[in-house]
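We treat protein structure as text, and this decision shapes the records that our systems exchange. Below, we set out a record of this kind in full and without editing:

***
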Amino acid sequence: MVPIAELPVRLPNHLRGLLFDLDDTLLDHSKLSEAAYSALFRLREAGFECYAVTGRPAGWAAVLVNQWPIQGAVAENGAIAFHADRDGLHTFESDPAPRAPRATRSVERAVLRDSERVPRARAGR
C-alpha cells in the first residue's frame, strides 16, 4: 500500500470509489475529525462512492450510512452490508446456513460438557 500522494497521476481517473476501515484509519482513537468527515463529503462531491468496512455491529453501519456522506457500509466482518440510494437503505446479509449446523453442534457439546461439571445446568429452550 502506498500513500495517495505517491499514486501515479493518471490512476485516480480509473478509480470509482473508496473502501475504508474505521478504527485507526478514518477514525483517530475512535474519534471522527472534522477533516476526515469533510474529506468524505469532498470525495462524494467528486463522484466517488465511499463504503465503510468494519468489524463493528450492524447497528453502527446502519447509522453511518444514514448519517455520513457514504453510499454504504459492510459490518460484522462481512456478515451484513448496507447500501443507500434514492429508494432508501438496503440490507444484504451473508447466508448463515452453512455455518449453523456446525455452530449448533459446538454449542451442544459445550452444554453437555458444562452439564457434566455442573449437574443442575441444562440447556434452555
